[in-house]
């Protein structure tokens, strides 16, 4: 099966893409970098470079990791009220991936966000299922959260950058204000 895979960061990609391939070696993955939520720009760039490094090491194609549009301004305009940020963020990235799958003739899509125990798995699945119906695609929902720590270790061995918060300015604020 050919699957468009939204990639949020290198460490999640390690466990997720590796798991999808292990589940079915016939899976052909196309990674997509689209994360307009990430702030500041240096964090965006570090994650983008880690995603590209992972793709190169895994021998997987990646779209958007070559410096495509940052998108922070439109993200901030859309989520000026922090209460709705996660739903918007998930939907924006998943819809980008679903549209890419349709445009390139892939029959399925998914996201490495599903690998993180820090993300809202059920909300991501709800949005993915909605978009799958809307675009006539299959939304793949593997659950690799139990392997998250193993993926972090593998990413460290590969020298991939590991972030300390989900990416948006609001989560960065929460990271520092809760410590």
Helix and strand arrangement:
Layout: E1 2-7, H1 10-23, E2 28-33, H2 41-58, E3 62-63, H3 72-78, H4 85-104, E4 108-111, H5 121-135, E5 138-139, H6 148-158, H7 169-177
Parallel strand pairs: 1-2, 1-4, 2-3, 4-5
Helix pairs in contact: 1-2, 1-6, 4-5
Give the averaged pLDDT, no decimals: 87
Given as residue ranges, the uncertain stretches (5+ residues, pLDDT < 50) are none
Shape: globular
Largest sheet geometry: 5 strands, parallel
What spatial order of strands do you see in the largest sheet? 3-2-1-4-5
Q: Assign the CATH architecture.
A: 3-Layer(aba) Sandwich
Helix-strand topology string: EHEHEHHEHEHH
Q: Which secondary-structure class do the elements indicate? A: alpha/beta
Number of discrete helical segments: 7
Radius of gyration: 15 Å
**CATH fold annotation:** Rossmann fold
Approximate helicity band? 40-55%
Give a count of the beta strands, DSSP E runs of length 2 or more.
5
What is the straight-line distance between the termini? 44 Å
CATH superfamily: HUPs
Write up this protein.
- This protein has 179 residues and is of the alpha/beta class.
- It has a single domain (2-177), classed as HUPs (Rossmann fold, 3-Layer(aba) Sandwich).
- Helix content is 53%, strand content 11%.
- It is built from seven helices and five strands; from the N terminus they run βαβαβααβαβαα.
- The chain has a five-stranded parallel beta sheet, with helices on both faces.
- Strand 4 (108-111), helix 5 (121-135) and strand 5 form a beta-alpha-beta unit.
- Helix 4 (85-104) packs parallel to helix 5.
- The longest helix has 20 residues, at 85-104.
- 40% of the residues are buried.
- The mean pLDDT is 87.
